[in-house]
Write a structure and sequence with these properties.
The structure holds 3 protein chains of 3 kinds. Chain A is mainly beta. Chain A has no helices and 11 strands. Chain B has one domain: Barwin-like endoglucanases. Chain B has 4 helices and 6 strands, in the order βααβαββββα. In chain B, about 55% of the residues are buried. Classes of the chains: A mainly beta, B alpha/beta, C alpha/beta. Chains B and C meet through strand 1, helix 1 and helix 4 of B and helix 1, helix 4, helix 6, helix 8 and helix 11 of C.
Amino acid sequence: MSGKSTDVADTKIIIDGDVSNVKRIGENMTAGEIVINSDVGMHIGNHMSGGKITVNGNADDWAGAMLQGGELEITGDAGHYVGSAYRGYWQGMKNGTIKVKGRVGVESMLWAKSSKPSNKWPTLYCGSADSFLGIHNHGGTIVVEGDVDRCVGADQAWGNIVIKGKVSRLLPSYKKVGEVKEVQLPNGEVIKGKFIEYSGDHTIKKETNGRLYIAA
Amino acid sequence: MSLDNLILLTGRTISQGVALEGGKASRENVRACGICTFDADDFKKLDCLVGTPVKVITDYGEVVLYSTITEEGPHQGIIFIPMGPWANQLVNPSSQGCGTPTYKGMKAKVEVVKSGKVLGAIELIGRLKEA
Amino acid sequence: MVVKIRTVKDVSCPFCGTLCDDLEIDVDIKTDLVVEVRNGCQIGTRKYFSSNPSDHRYMKPLIKVNGEHKEVSWDEALDKAADILVNAQRPLLYGFSSTECEAQSRGVELAEMLNAILDNTASVCHGPSLLAIQDVGASLATLGEIKNRADTIIFWGSNPVHAHPRHLSRYSDFIRGYFRTDGRNDRNIIVIDPRYTHTAQIADKYIKVNPSEDYELIQAIRAVLRGSELDVKEVSGVPMDDIKELVEELKSCNFGVVFFGMGLTQSLAHHRNVDTAIRLVAELNDYTKFLLIPMRGHYNVAGANQVFTWNTGYPYSIDFSRGYPRYNPGEFSSVELLLRDEVDASLIVASDPGSNFPAASVKNLFKHPLISIEPHKTPTSAFADVILPAAIAGIECEGTAYRMDGVPLRLRKVKDPPGDTLSDKEILERLIEKVKEKLGE
């Protein structure tokens, strides 16, 4: 540690050395920046509402759990439950962005919840994903560069999941709608490319606004 | 003499329950739990007699067990081992973050080992202590 | 020679979650041995007989000296055990499901004192059910309700013929109830399982599902129930027509119940299988009365969850390392902790993780000091540093236990504990005293 700070937003913390078993770095963070040049333990940036955390390495489970805002970037892989709700909560990540270069584990973006009136769009970008990505999704946006394991978007009420690779086993409760040339995300971003559009999850409602786009 | 692409399930059987109450170090426990039950058609492909020791191999370990034909079939492509020390040499310890290991549904393969010995519970678990 | 016997009636059987409370035990007055068990299943009967002294029953406290177990006094054994626990940084207290509630609450007390990790066997069996219930709630009932009313009974991933032998005859299948006067003939039994189990063989309908694909099947059933036409012809090995037929059957019954077991909680997707099953049951209530009940394994694992919850707020996988309880299965559950090698001493109460944990975690369990409170020789106690011989709850001491549906029942004492054995509760109380001394409280 070095330097003085008067304002949280001006604070930048750089962590070198092994913190692969240190939990809860950046918990409840509101502003400023943390850079970690190592693998990091569980619960990195949980309940964070502002600022930025960069992990130059892999993160363990529960990275960015219950995120309320801000940005979390992981250059390696992340564990299970990235940007998820903690046990028993039915509103998890409400705003902010998580970017994972590598793979995210199971049940990432569990119970994500967006809000149109207050313009909050929780978003996850990842390289590839394990099973149950975006389960119980209530408006979260997920963009996957690569492949995804089984049960993506299970019990999704509404929200958008874009997959540029393949899905190992699509849920039977998703129905094909048609083909699209580009996908407009609620945060304004446009993703170009040919996608097959699916609606679901039809376990929640017969007609649903939940959308899943898989590269054609 | 070997089978690939099987799926391993584990679970309770009544003789396993009786044997564990009767003493876990007993031979009765080996006869109840140190077994691998096959579907009848799968077993024909192994070309051996019932009771011949087989080695079951998964990504997580291997163990020698007595072979037997299931009463709860047909279940082609599935092998069943009663829960206990033998089954747990083979199961997937990963819980996918929920705390409960995946005791069912591992990919497995089976080889007949004519000279294999099925270890007793204490002996089998004892190998983990030395290692 | 005339054998004089004493008969104890209405005994609750301490084996499985069914907790049958109608056993009759004959005890020889002179020798205090169990000579006859009536009404029990094979397993329960065997449990009573195995309480008689035998070569695998521990009678005196043992300590491991130079690799051999040596008989010592209670004081010496408890002193050694307390030493191990007090000197450990992150001790694990595990088990508790095969003992009575009073002993379990002493376990909570000890864990809090030691800033330890407290876990029960739900963490390797029905823990996922509890996680799912915390996420989406559950519509549960007592077994009496099922006995008197249920006409459609689904066993999903459970095999009561083997695991809960008297469940079918006492509560769910053959028994006559107030509204089910003709017993078995008034009930429609459906079994969903990858194997054609013995339960499936006596059922009215058997659906063969591919292993580890239950989640997809339940999702398809729910979507069909919502009135959606699906694109697929087959789900998890079950043809779409069969799913539609099943949905009609479920909608048209009077009172349905889903009993689910390890088939859902121990296969891939774990608590999500239960999550979607609970929602299916909730949605079926738009049409008819439907409930679900988890098929709990140990006779008092439900009690362990109750006791832990009313003491700490959480049912299992509790970490006291900060002085207050924290809960997160996956982070603080025994198997995961052992896999990460975070535990440096363990106290096992009435359980056998050596047999029942995956090999990789057992390896790490054996690396560190191990204390076992256990009546019998097991693959865990055989490698323990301290063995504290216990009386068997429900046979040699009294207590309370919770049935799988959450009904508390009194366990009876049918005979005196043999040798120097003490009840789990008393052992833990004495251990607490020792630990208090060493902590200087």
